[in-house]
Design goal:
With 303 residues, this protein is α/β, with parallel strands linked by helices. Helix content is 49%, strand content 8%. Helix 1 runs parallel beside helix 13 and helix 6 packs parallel to helix 8. The chain is globular.
Length: 303
């Protein structure tokens, strides 16, 4: 089962409060926004809660590779988004055109030592820049207290390493984004996405009694895969994240037909990954959670 919820997001440009309030109103039309038996929502970070367009990691990948004389496009940099950053670099080096450049430059096929070298170059660049991309995505600041007021716990996880999150989290908290728990992409021995480990670490930390009462919200395919493997409901975000890749300014200036075309491609990709629902941004989430809760009360499960 998957669905696209778009009733509250027909307009290309809408104010965050208008979209969020409309979604809350839609949620309340059923049973006063009764979210039982849901227990928690687990969010990704870049492209989901903060950093509209998931811009912070993308440009840094391009710049880090450039320091080795290797040219990659923004589209290539976005390809493996959602993975931990070491795995992301490793995946990029599997790209035939990038691997060919490496072979020409260094006379060898890229290996794990080369991943380590790029990662070591990437990390200080990402740490220095991530704070510039800590602005909350429209609706996120209103959403977290709304979830808590309805009895849900708020977890999160990220492909960012802990060193990067240590720079991002204080600035996000100052702007109103402070989940109950945060798991970094490099801190679990079992690994990160697309495995279920970070999502399940949230379950343990938050004391959730049933993974089927959790919703994983993410803008990337590995993040959706993570939630599915953990046995959770999954909600994909099309417009705000990596798959569309607009900055806030680019989105505001883009023609409606272009926006709709990009969103349609992103929705199709997230649905193909198995997302139970796809919406444009977290501002649309209240109505979706109400639908999921109603489905659970009717006996449905995510798997």
């Amino acid at each position: 089962m998957n669905a696209t919820i778009s009733a509250t997001t027909q307009a290309t440009i809408s104010t965050p409060s208008a979209t969020f309030n409309a979604s809350c109103a839609a949620a309340a039309t059923g049973s006063a926004a009764d979210l039982a038996p849901l227990q928690a929502v687990i969010f990704d970070w870049a492209g989901t809660l903060v950093d509209f367009g998931s811009l912070a990691p993308t440009q840094i990948f391009v710049e880090a590779f450039a320091t080795f004389g290797i040219t990659i496009t923004l589209a290539q940099a976005r390809g493996p988004m959602g993975l931990s950053k070491w795995d992301h670099i490793h995946q990029l080096l599997q790209d035939a055109s990038i691997a060919a450049q490496w072979q020409t430059a260094f006379g060898r096929t890229p290996g794990n030592d080369d991943v380590d070298a790029i990662y070591a170059r990437f990390m200080p660049m990402q740490i220095a820049k991530v704070g510039e991309f800590s602005a909350p995505i429209d609706g996120a600041v209103e959403l977290l207290p709304w979830l808590r007021a309805h009895g849900l716990k708020v977890g999160s996880c990220s492909g960012y390493p802990r060193e990067v999150l240590n720079q991002l989290l204080p600035q996000a908290a100052a702007a109103g984004i402070a989940p109950d728990h945060v798991v970094a992409g490099d801190e679990l021995p079992a690994g990160g996405r697309p495995g279920p480990f970070m999502a399940l670490a949230n379950v343990l930390a938050l004391g959730i009694g049933d993974v089927r009462a959790c919703v994983k919200v993410d803008d990337t395919v590995p993040g959706i895969d993570e939630g599915l493997r953990a046995g959770m409901w999954t909600v994909g975000l099309s417009l705000s994240g990596n798959e569309v890749g607009y900055s806030v300014h680019e989105y505001a200036q883009a023609p409606k037909d272009e926006v709709d075309a990009r969103v349609a491609v992103a929705e199709a990709k997230l649905k193909a990954a198995g997302a139970h629902y796809v919406v444009r941004s977290v501002a649309d989430l209240p109505a979706v959670l109400a639908q999921i809760a109603a489905a659970m009360r009717a006996g449905k499960t995510p798997v």
